[in-house]
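Hello Y.,

Per our agreement to keep a running log of every chain we model this quarter, I'm adding this entry. I've kept the format consistent with earlier entries: sequence first, then predicted structure.
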Amino acid sequence: MTIDSLAAVRTFARGEWAPLAQAHAAQADALTAGRRERASRGERHAIEDFLYEYYATKPSHLRRWHPGVGVALQDADEHADWRFYWTSGRRTIVDVEAFMDARASTVGYVETLLKRTATRTASFGCFGLHEWAMVYRMDGDDRRHRLPLRLGAAATDAVVESHSIRCTHFDAFRFFTPEAAPLNELLPTRETQPAMEQPGCLHANMDLYKWAFKLTPAVPSSLVLDAFQLALDVRRVDMQASPYDVSAYGLEAITIETPAGKREYVERQREFAERGAAVRDRLLEAITALRDADSRH
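Predicted structure for the entry above:
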């Protein structure tokens, strides 16, 4: 097989693709500046650092530029040394067959999950209570974040007890306290995730970054960075609506225990659902391009 034998391959001279890679690195550096500065001082940010720790991401990962499948780069020696790239002569391209050999099951799972999620009606009635259920009747020393509770422990528990909890996302539900788990109207599991994920869920939209990162380098880095920006914005709102006092980070609480707070949360939820739908569609388009580029498909 040669690069010329592949369908729909575009070749970019170094003078064309190098400025794109540089611009991408600059954009990634701007997004990750806080993380890098904190790391140099040994400090931690309870809100933003979650993305790097939970998704096992490094700023260096984000600043690497990948064109996606179907693009050959001339004189790209740095790319030639990266995993899932293949070089012929002066041109380097994503090695689709090697990628699919290693990640076919992941590609299939992500494709199924995203397609099913996209077909469902978004639900906007959870009000971010998953974060409250994660601290319900929990001792302060055991909480995930070393932040004070905005209402105090007793009032926080009362909010949980006075609301219906309907969390659809397994990776949120699995962190519920043992006392809170039976209060959830649903029982999400890893196996039922493709059947329960819905586009109004903040965590489902935040996870779009996870899926984009897992599909790297088969998806363009511009898409990965857009997904990361969405995840960062979602994470902030997730914590603003949580029981934690996030004022130390310059953020105002979204008081979901009040009617006004509920309205604000739903408004932000709808905004994220719209942005998430666009990212989800682009991920599915990238998966389609990946499958089309696989000569064995």
